[in-house]
Amino acid sequence: MASAMLSFASAAASASASLPVHENLKGKTKIGSVNFGSSVQERNPFGKTKHFGRVSMTVAVNVSRFEGITMAPPDPILGVSEAFKADTDEKKLNLGVGAYRTEELQPYVLKVVKKAENLMLERGENKEYLPIEGLAAFNKATAELLFGAENPVIKQQRVATVQGLSGTGSLRLAAALIERYFPGAKVLISSPTWGNHKNIFNDARVQWSEYRYYDPKTVGLDFDGMIADIKAAPEGSFILLHGCAHNPTGIDPTPEQWEKIADVIQEKNHIPFFDVAYQGFASGSLDADAASVRLLSARGMELLVAQSYSKNLGLYAERIGAINVVCSSADAATRVKSQLKRLARPMYSNPPVHGAKIVANIVGDPALFNEWKAEMEMMAGRIKNVRQKLYDSLSAKDKSGKDWSFILKQIGMFSFTGLSKTQSENMTKKWHVHITKDGRISVARLSSAKCEYLADAILDSYHNVGLPEIGQQ
Ligand code: PLA
């Protein structure tokens, strides 16, 4: 610990007490030294003095009250962008965070979003606070997009919808609801899953454990393992499911498998908790990508769904999404919504308006809605093309006979390559291809022009680096 000195001097007594910061942090009030007869400035040449009434406070320059706080590790996903920025090599390629890029590797603002924003500007809309639950027109639109406007859960007003801070904030709000109203309940998450799920439940103090999902031998779904683990979970657990385009694996259950998943969830009285971060972005169709949620809700189950508009509308930084809780009665939904609002108020008070208005304007205008669907199909289509190109390059270059066709079976913006941590590190260190260390590649950020280079990097890392680990058998 540095020679941290914090002094409290009583103006009346002209005395100061110095205590090392670490002791102060522990809540102790041990006095290190007391000096009389000289001014604070004289006694501590490094100090700056502020007078607050009778007590003056001296804080040493260059020494922090936060000395005891250690450096946090970089985020495994968002940290990739920081490492990319720091890389000075010309060939560098950022395939970390799931954010769509054009063929020219530029960020893309949807044309339909620009149109909606222009409309908002023309109308000269104000910046008043939204209600705690968010924009009513957005909440209506988002629930209808998810369940379908004619769905009985909507017609019977059984869905409590609250606008959230995109997918992450909506998940966090749901986690707070679980913590408050289902004490001791467990959330089951897939192994692997989006890394932030664990953080969200940890911070909300909700217990979680994993169910088997990925089978490295087939680079596919470990369906039997998944079913067995969901069955073995304590009755009434929350089962976190990726509605479509599972992150990071890109492997989704088939419709028949979803039926079986629904069976076991119902048998065990579990509560499905969907994370829908890619509706319309996985297949290009909003309805197809909501099929899993609709299938389970059609069985009359109560369930939770977190939504995000980061990817499908490219509204990443606008932080727009929602949490929906389907209840067995309208009355329960009203009460749940009131409690979601109560949880939101001290966390962030009320959500941002801009993205909510964009979504509401687009969905509420048939012409704009159609334009959005066309742009979503275009983005999903570009990702599929690049995926195909990557597969073609790998197959043409790899003379070992390895079958790379699993890449074509994966859905959404990512490809889970099966590369180990060391191999993923080689991708970055040697080839300047920045990916997450679990071997996930953000295909949405890849251009056709870069496929050959990426294939070279993958093949070198796969064949020449490290001992076979999980995913390499
Ligand atoms: N849920 C899943 C499954 C996600 O993949 C992501 C984003 C979110 C929720 C949250 O997104 P939002 O808060 O912006 O709505 N995953 C990204 C970005 C795309 C990230 O990690 O924040 C990813 O690269 O995995």
TrEMBL record:
Reaction equations catalysed: L-aspartate + 2-oxoglutarate = oxaloacetate + L-glutamate
Signal peptide start and end residues: 1-17
Organism, as annotated: Rhodamnia argentea
Needed cofactors: pyridoxal 5'-phosphate
Keyword Nucleotide-binding: no
UniProt KW Coiled coil keyword: no
Stretches assigned to the Aminotransferase class I/classII large domain: 91-458
Family from the record: Belongs to the class-I pyridoxal-phosphate-dependent aminotransferase family.
Note from the entry: In eukaryotes there are cytoplasmic, mitochondrial and chloroplastic isozymes.
Gene name for this UniProt entry: LOC115726367
Top-level enzyme category: transferase
Any Pfam family: Aminotran_1_2
Assembly notes: Homodimer.
Taxonomic classification: Eukaryota, Viridiplantae, Streptophyta, Embryophyta, Tracheophyta
Name this protein carries in UniProt: Aspartate aminotransferase
Keywords: Aminotransferase, Pyridoxal phosphate, Signal, Transferase
